[in-house]
Amino acid sequence: MKKKAQTEIIGLAIVVILLIIGMTFVIRFMMTKEPVDYKKQFTQAEIASNMINTFLKSTSQDCNELSMTELLQDCGQSMSIHCNGKVSCDYVEETVQDIFNQTLEVWKINYEFKVFQQEEIPKFTLGTPCPASKKSKTFPIPTSSGTLFVKLDICG
After folding, report:
1. Which of 155, 152, 143, 154 shows the shortest CA–CA distance to 80?
2. Are residues 68 and 123 in the same domain?
3. How far apart (Å, rounded) are the C-alpha atoms in residues 112 and 116?
4. Residue 15 structural domain
C-alpha cells in the first residue's frame, strides 16, 4: 500500500512539473508577441478624417468667403471662380499646402493628399505616396460633371 501511494505522488509531481513547464512556454510566447498599436491606428484614421472635414468646411479669406467645398466643386466643373488671380483648383491647392505645412509637416506626419474624379488622373496631389501601411479618408463632393473625391492618406 505504501509503495502504491509513493507511485501516485511521483505521478502527480510529474504532472505538476509538466504543467509548470507548459505554462512557462505559454507565458514566454505571450510576452514576446508584438503588441498591436490600436491607438496609433485609430489616431491616424481620426487625423485623416478630421483634417479633411475641417478643411472642406473652412472658408476662403480671399474668395468671397466661399467654402473649400464650393471651390472644389468649381474645380471639378467649370473653373469659373478666380481668387487672387488663380483658378479655384490652384487656389485650393495653395491653401491646403499652407495648412498642411503648418500642421502635418510640423507634427512630422507623412501624408498624401489627392483631389480627383478618376484616381489615376488627379487634379492635384500633395505629399508623397505611403510606402507601407496607411489610414485613409475619402470625402465625395458632387459636381455637375461627376463626383470629385478628396482623399487624405496618413502614413504609418
Report:
1. 143
2. yes
3. 13
4. 1-33
Q: How far apart are CA 148 and CA 126, in angstroms?
A: 16
Are the beta carbons of 123 and 75 closer than 8 angstroms?
yes
Question: Which of 103, 73, 75, 105 has its CA nearest to residue 90?
Answer: 75
Q: Same domain, yes or no, for 83 and 102?
A: yes
Tens-digit pLDDT profile for residues 24-55: 888 887 777 666 666 777 788 888 899 999 99
At 79, list the grid cell: 473653373
Which residue in 74, 20, 83 sits closest to 12, CA to CA? 20
Backbone angle region of 10, left / alpha / beta, with phi > 0 → left and psi within -120 to 50 → alpha: alpha
Hey, what's the torsion of the CAs at 66, 67, 70, 75, to 10 degrees? 90
Q: What is the pLDDT of residues 92-107, one digit of tens each?
A: 999 999 999 999 999 9
When divided into structural domains, the chain yields a total of: 2
Measured on CA atoms in the order 47, 109, 52, 130, is the torsion positive or negative?
A: negative
